[in-house]
Write a structure and sequence with these properties.
Layout: H1 3-11, H2 13-21, H3 27-34, H4 51-61, E1 67-68, E2 73-74, H5 81-90, H6 95-107, H7 122-135, E3 159-160, E4 165-167, E5 182-185, E6 188-196, E7 205-208, E8 221-222, E9 229-237, E10 240-245, E11 257-262
Parallel strand pairs: 3-5, 4-6, 5-11
Antiparallel strand pairs: 1-2, 6-9, 7-8, 7-10, 10-11
Helix pairs in contact: 1-2, 4-7, 6-7
The structure holds heme C.
Length: 263
């Protein structure tokens, strides 16, 4: 049984009703699904769903646990949503039904699972579910206003050490990334400070080498973990290349790292 059919089977009669209700699709959803990226219907879809807000909220509330290629998220705690819906979509599952499945999953996640209940609700839930239903399982990139709805992970201005302090914030939008993937510092003791307002738990650790997602040496120092707040770690560095990264399982692999050049 595919995860999605398991999902609907588990829900029994409610899910059966879902499939019927989902047959009522507004013309905007259809147009939006076909021409994703054109302003108008694709932004304000059926029921006034705003897929820009949907994408932003998905990245911030769901992306740390779920991979969804179009949203650029790489979380691994929950199922990869592109993969989860692929078989059902291939078997003819309507995208409007995907929207309903997502809404129900958020309202009634598996009580034994790791997904918290009611992460988003009301109109925002509709926005998130509509966005997911439009992009899940699709290759390529979001276009138009959706393309710029969330910043590219790590694309911020490089961080530069000042008076022994280096500030590298975690992505405020909940992406598994720091705001910048580049930093520089003078040799000697450096306090690396990580502000995090995202609500997703992160830390910052430093190791020698330029391994990117792959460990390249013993960890020189690591801050504590924080979901909202600021943590820091002080390391003494010689000239060379270092990697800073998050030690929450899966985050480094998802791209939460950067290069620190010490001169
Ligand atoms: C803390 C991690 C976490 C967060 C945050 C999270 N999920 Fe999940 N999600 C899971 C796990 C684990 C499962 C599988 C078990 C279950 O059904 O609860 C899951 C299952 C799902 C499924 C069903 C996939 C399938 O294969 O059946 C969907 C759809 C889904 N999540 C959507 C969302 C959306 C939308 C959000 C944001 C509003 C979200 N999730 C946030 C962990 C998470």
């Amino acid at each position: 049984m595919s995860p999605i059919s398991a999902l609907t089977a588990r829900r029994g009669p409610a899910a059966a009703g879902l499939w019927r209700r989902s047959l009522r699709v507004g013309p905007c959803v259809l147009v939006g699904a076909l021409a994703l990226g054109t302003v108008g219907c694709s932004v304000k879809g059926a029921d006034n769903a705003n897929v820009i807000v949907g994408k932003q909220q998905f990245v911030s509330k769901c992306g740390s646990c779920h991979t969804l290629a179009r949203a650029g998220t790489k979380g691994v705690i929950g199922p990869n949503l592109d993969a989860a819906f692929a078989a059902s979509l291939a078997e003819g599952l309507k995208r409007s039904s995907v929207r309903n499945v997502v809404e129900w999953q958020v309202k009634i996640p598996n009580p034994e699972g790791a997904m918290p209940k009611d992460l988003v609700a009301g109109a925002t839930l509709r926005d998130v579910a509509t966005y997911v239903s439009k992009v899940v399982g699709r290759s390529g990139q979001d276009k138009g206003l959706l393309a710029s709805a969330v910043p590219a992970p790590g694309a911020g201005q490089p961080a530069v050490e000042k008076a022994g302090k280096l500030q590298i914030a975690a992505s405020p939008s909940g992406q598994l990334a720091y705001v910048t993937s580049k930093a520089s510092a003078a040799a000697g003791p450096v306090t690396v400070e990580m502000p995090n307002i995202s609500g997703v738990s992160h830390n910052i650790a430093v190791e020698p080498g330029n391994g990117g997602a792959t460990p390249s040496g013993a960890v020189l120092g690591a801050s504590g973990f924080v979901a909202k707040g600021t943590v820091s770690v002080t390391v003494t560095l010689k000239p060379g290349s270092y990697t800073y990264f998050c030690q929450v399982p899966g985050h480094r692999q998802a791209g939460m790292y950067g290069t620190l050049t010490v001169k």
